[in-house]
Here is the input.
Amino acid sequence: MNPTDRSWIQTVSLVPPTLQDNTADADRLIGALKDRLQTDAIHLDLDLLKQLPECLRKWKYRVCCLLFQDRHRWLVTAIARADDPPPMAGLAVDLGTTRVVLRLIDLAAGSRLAESGFDNPQLAVAPDILARIHFAESPDGFTRLNELIITGLNRSIEKLCRQAGLEPRSIYAVSVAGNTAMTHLFMGLDPRWIIREPYIPVVNKPDIIKASQLGLDVNPSARALVFPNVGSYFGGDLIAGILYSGLHRRPDVAILVDVGTNAEVIVGNRDWLIACAGAAGPALEGGVTAMGMMAAPGAVDRIAIDPKTHVFEIHTIEDQPPQGICGSGVIDLAAQLFLSGMIDIRGKLVAAVCADHLKKIDGLAHLVVVPADQSATGSDLTISQADIDSLIRSKAAMYTILETITSSVGLQPEDLTTFYVAGTFGSFIDPRSAIAIGMLPDLPLDSYTPLGNSSLAGASLALTSAGCLEEIDRIRDRTTYLELNVNQDFMNRFSAAKFLPHTDTARFPSVEKRRRSS
Amino acid sequence: MNPTDRSWIQTVSLVPPTLQDNTADADRLIGALKDRLQTDAIHLDLDLLKQLPECLRKWKYRVCCLLFQDRHRWLVTAIARADDPPPMAGLAVDLGTTRVVLRLIDLAAGSRLAESGFDNPQLAVAPDILARIHFAESPDGFTRLNELIITGLNRSIEKLCRQAGLEPRSIYAVSVAGNTAMTHLFMGLDPRWIIREPYIPVVNKPDIIKASQLGLDVNPSARALVFPNVGSYFGGDLIAGILYSGLHRRPDVAILVDVGTNAEVIVGNRDWLIACAGAAGPALEGGVTAMGMMAAPGAVDRIAIDPKTHVFEIHTIEDQPPQGICGSGVIDLAAQLFLSGMIDIRGKLVAAVCADHLKKIDGLAHLVVVPADQSATGSDLTISQADIDSLIRSKAAMYTILETITSSVGLQPEDLTTFYVAGTFGSFIDPRSAIAIGMLPDLPLDSYTPLGNSSLAGASLALTSAGCLEEIDRIRDRTTYLELNVNQDFMNRFSAAKFLPHTDTARFPSVEKRRRSS
Here is the structure.
């Protein structure tokens, strides 16, 4: 979303030395870059100094420099001939707890070369962050977790490079965005204090690190930027998301929400940023229902219910026979059930309306979404009253978090005009459905801007926009983290949000309208 | 000569984290150091981050930090418990073409732990800089020269540490001063362009380098400061010498001279510095005479000649039987011959006065300094008219260089009030003798301040005075190098200086007085 301000690659022409101007080679190069970069805080690696005299003379003092930046200096990490320079690539990494996505970038053109992802190999030893940190405390556990992710990355780097017809040695810059625990495990930093009161990471703003020191098989001179975090619960992936959204540059107040098991929210503009994170519960991602599954072929991702006939119109990913339901499908389902009157404002299944969609299983009421004869599993795909209750608690938690953070700056969720939805899951949600159940505020639909994998996009931006470390730090430093206290205010708001769409229906005029028209 | 301003070791107490103050460990440490150092440009190595959480908690948030500094940041290179911290040492190196001297320093106390020297092992392949650079261009020659000096240093480091009861791992900071060619060979940088027009070094201001990257067997986190040079012919050893002398801080104009085969001269004060270097010839170091030798036991280092009887009173180093004559002895000898009338103002032996001290060898006039029956060699120790001529050319060159550099700022050598004499050889010269032959200007004797090994002393200062890199760079950046053009002016001055003490005897009133009183 931000323009590529400036490339990390700069070609400079040096004035060749004379008896009257006999500055050393390195100081001559730094002098030329100083004019370009408007600073003399420029560092050259010793390895580069070793090549410099021969290269300068061979290339007739025209040099293509690959730059990077730490917090206090520009770094020259490679030099090449100015005419027809060899390929120079950057690697952006979204270091997810569950899935890791890599993007290879042509640093000269600022364009994408290849992209691929893999399941985080740490899943094999521990499914979530909490379990991983506990595993890290077992003998060799910590080393194991670090090795798993580094080995996984190296394997993926090799594949990605092969795909793009490059050598891993052509990667000169790496940018990594992940949550605080994941970046700690990636850097080989002990995560144990992240989950223990008072929740202290080893580092908030890691300095630029040699990629080789991290164990990455890329060019030995390559540097890695690991996105900074605000604390244990607000990680670099979100900082990357803000960077990509451009929220921190806007004059008006906007919001960015990463919807998931954990809801992470940032409200702000170019002057201030407030962030908070809270558990919304796995129900939003379809994690609770027996029929819940990841977004994959065969997952129900869209549902429409005819308000008159109550016939279900089911869409699945890649139009495969339905196997289960994914997050966006669950939200669609809840919205359609509500709009068609099959559940009431408390989320309770209305037997009279549901009619033969209802079925008792082990004495509990279930709604059949896909009958056995139409499902890929050969069994009914159903959702229980308990599942719906859980979903409502999750959507209520989400809305309460939005209300709490906006009210902390004297606003209501409905006052916002720009609403960024981050994360892959977020991108698939139909905002109309999320509004219908009162999970997201009743804003005009064009207020909602899905960002896709904003963590990866932000990490990529750091590779195509030279000098953006300062911007990243400014985002981090300006972000005030709001501790969500589950106090009486919060509980009152939560209770009010446990209705569909909300106790205060005036907040959701479009939903009222749709219900009336159904 | 400068006071130890500030130690590289700083002990800080951190406020332990709470829920209200949950900054990360690293950022907390940097915060505490920021208050102390008045800057937030502070870098922590990844290796150190790895130890940090455990150490902070074990040490109850009281930490002894070993700092160093590159051009843009303070670096934390080690942490230790604040109570009874382990020894932390620094290594200062005078990287001479002929001899290398090492000093081990206790960084906490700022005191000397041990010192030792070794002949530069590169002597085995090439005696001087020019020969070494040519050798560097032979196959593997460059690598060989680099290995020779690094291996030599590592061997000496081990011995030095054993002597001081330390492990080499206890060395956390290294400071190296040498001429431009030597520091290039030490860093593994190609020196070939140093000796070729327009005489370009690879680097003038090398950044701080990890000692391990240089191949030094010290602590893996240790950093090395290599003193910057002004160009190919004005090296870091002289910058170190200026630093140690304090010349660059003085309100009055002072001079620093490193007397040797090459005379290196700096004139200046706290506002400006002018430097030049020129060949004075090996005669000053006793290198030409057949009886010349290094300052070692048995070397004649002091001579007095009775003006009436012309009896020679000889002093040798360690009072051993005389084997030869060293630099300071040669200058004493020339001064005494002149003052006693045995040579005339042109430096010619006066046969009538020399009488039976004279002897023809191969048809050439020689003066017997030590007869065969008193010498350790069993032969006469003699000096020839040609040797004396050579010495006079050298002393004339030295004075001409002094006159040229002072006149460039509108002064005469006699106008200076402070005269630093650098180098081991310089320390042994009797200024009265150097004045008598017109090699040094006729200043009050207390104007002359011998500095000893000022290169080593300056390198040591960088280890005991935190923050002095800025001062070193200021010296370097402010130094204007004056190219000595051997033009008509220079030749006129040189011709005038080829007399004893000088054509213009009014410049040397004390010498006239001594001659009259002889």
Q: What stands out?
A: The first strand of chain B starts at residue 9 and ends at 13. Chain B touches chain A through 46 residues (CB under 8 Å). The radius of gyration of chain B is 26 Å. Residues 9-81 of chain B form a domain with the Ubiquitin-like (UB roll) fold (CATH 3.10.20.880).
